[in-house]
Amino acid sequence: MPHSMTSSSPAQGHVVASASPQLRQWIAEQRRIGVLDATLLTAMTAAGWNEAVARAALQAPPMVVATPKVPLPEPALVGEPGAIDVGDREVRVLMSMKGPRVVLFGQILSDAECAALIAAARPRLARSLTVETASGGEEINADRTSDGMFFQRGELPLVQLLEARIARLLNWPVENGEGLQVLRYGPGAEYKPHHDYFDPDEPGTATIVRRGGQRVGTLIIYLNEPAQGGATVFPEASLQVVPQRGHAVFFSYDQPDPSTRTLHGGAPVIAGEKWIATKWLRQGRFD
Ligand SMILES: O=C(O)CCC(=O)C(=O)O
Ligand SMILES: [Fe+2]
């Protein structure tokens, strides 16, 4: 009988002799986001799959997941680890959401490292520009009232160390990352909701993506804690990430399209200052 697939439950069916490609696809997708096999088995039998078939499907060679349009940065969350070893440090896993793809991490930087990054960036701050897709150049933008600067990739030992951690954490080559950007928001400063990918309909985008391809993921690292305000918000997911020193929020987008629901912004700082470091990840080498 025909059956429909959703991402949250296996296909319903009567007793079936063998696992369909759809079922194997669903298993692969669930594993990718970290669901354990025991949980999958329960879900499959509850949905009407014969237990022997369900077990066989779980034992079959893993299927390549076809859902993402392009390979994406993604942390290894299979088995639901509480932390990920990034070489010189254990990064804590605090929250994981599938659609939009958002993962919250803790302790990617120590307090001392956050302070050192702020100190290195502070003398180089200037009013933030945004990439202007109309021309491919950069411009001052009223939607973005922070001050910022870019580090060259590998510019300082601390920057290099952080880039290596990010590469391990998100399984994405260091070479595909843009230089780390540090932003400071004073009281009232904000970054209105936007997408980080480059709009394919804008004439300047072709020029921009010649170097490294599209952006496919973003990691925002919180370097301090504003006294009030300054959350990173995802309006379409009703999600608000409160800045905590050393934490980082990751999100990815498999195509440059609003359907990824990765619209996000930095809410106005109400009191104090907000410092973040942003790492944008490209599809290919960003040289
Ligand atoms: O300030 C924030 O929380 C968001 C920053 C952001 O969207 C970006 O740097 O692309
Ligand atoms: Fe952004």
Automatic annotation (TrEMBL):
Cofactor(s) the protein needs: L-ascorbate
InterPro entries for the chain: Oxoglu/Fe-dep_dioxygenase_dom, P4HA-like, Pro_4_hyd_alph, Pro_4_hyd_alph_FE2OG_OXY
PROSITE patterns in the cross-refs: FE2OG_OXY
Domain Fe2OG dioxygenase: 176-283
Gene Ontology terms, MF aspect: iron ion binding; L-ascorbic acid binding; procollagen-proline 4-dioxygenase activity
Gene3D superfamilies, A to Z: q2cbj1_9rhob like domain
Keyword Transferase: no
Protein name: 2-oxoglutarate-dependent dioxygenase
Organism, scientific name: Acidovorax cavernicola
